[in-house]
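Q: Give me the 3D complex with adenosine-5'-triphosphate.
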Amino acid sequence: MITVSDLRKVYQQGSKDVVALDGVSLEVPTGKIHGIVGHSGAGKSTLVRCLTLLDQPTSGTVAVNGKELTNVSTDELRNARRRIGMVFQHANLFDSRTTEQNVAYPLELVGTPKAEIDAKVAELLELVGLTKFAKGYPSQLSGGQRQRVGIARALATDPDVLLCDEPTSALDPKTTDEILDLVKKLRDRLNITVLIITHEMHVVKQACDSVSMLEAGKIVEHGDIEQVITNAKGSLASTLLPLPGDAPRVDGEGPILDLLYTGDQATQPVISSISRQFNTDVNVLAGSVEQLGEQQYAHLRLQLAADADLNAIVNHLKSTGIAVTVKGAK
Ligand SMILES: Nc1ncnc2c1ncn2[C@@H]1O[C@H](COP(=O)(O)OP(=O)(O)OP(=O)(O)O)[C@@H](O)[C@H]1O
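A: Here is the predicted complex, encoded as structure tokens.
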């Protein structure tokens, strides 16, 4: 588990204070994958630097499995850093080292005996599917394979947390999915906690159990994927499950509703039930239905007939667990 409590980072720029992190708190349980999304300048890189202790937070704490990593002595800092393995956008491998030598590097740094290193490296290369490339050099590997080496290297010191900073931003869509599948497999096998910093919603949808949105150094929205998708008031719902294009123009003056729902509701005949129960016409303006993990999610934009009983219909939908926003009449 990783626990971040009230993390603040203030940089001095001349006589001015720049607040890069403004009280960030989050808790990711062991074995879960958590995404952190945010626009440029939101504070993502600062958060990564504070979590990996490359930068000292101005205040607040970071703890892994209850053990605080911040505010430790210089001697303890090296051990503390080993609890969080780091995967970068570009694998940053040593070109002059073979695949296995790259993975061995963090173990050499801490003086691990050679036989132990060899066994660990072989195990890790098997885990990431690169055994037959052990003797190859980075220049002979594809982008996805290089990222696999980076992941194996990050796991060499048996960290409790894997922190991935834009791990797929330099990869094509197919390789992105392969790397995300690998991260999920590693989480399952090693029961490791994973934090993924990303600007790609696809990554959140494919791999994350939960997500936080960072804005101007603060977490403005967070929750399990199901919670954020069915939160009609948040902005992550329509970002994760956008409606395709512009809703088509239709005749009529009836009110427009946006519906977000999941799980049991997704299998219910929502439209025909409104139509039958309230004796009104319902027009689908746009819709998006997606299967994420085990769960089905739907985002529909409907237009009701002008004389429909709007309040009764909205109350009925809400009572069945569907998140509803009234967009007004067209
Ligand atoms: N060393 C620094 N000195 C002064 N200000 C800084 C420093 N590092 C970051 N900042 C400021 O802190 C804020 C957050 O920056 P940060 O790089 O963490 O954002 P980001 O979300 O990673 O952006 P991007 O996606 O563009 O990398 C910005 O306003 C930035 O200008």
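A quick observation: Residues 86 and 163 are 5 Å apart (CA to CA).
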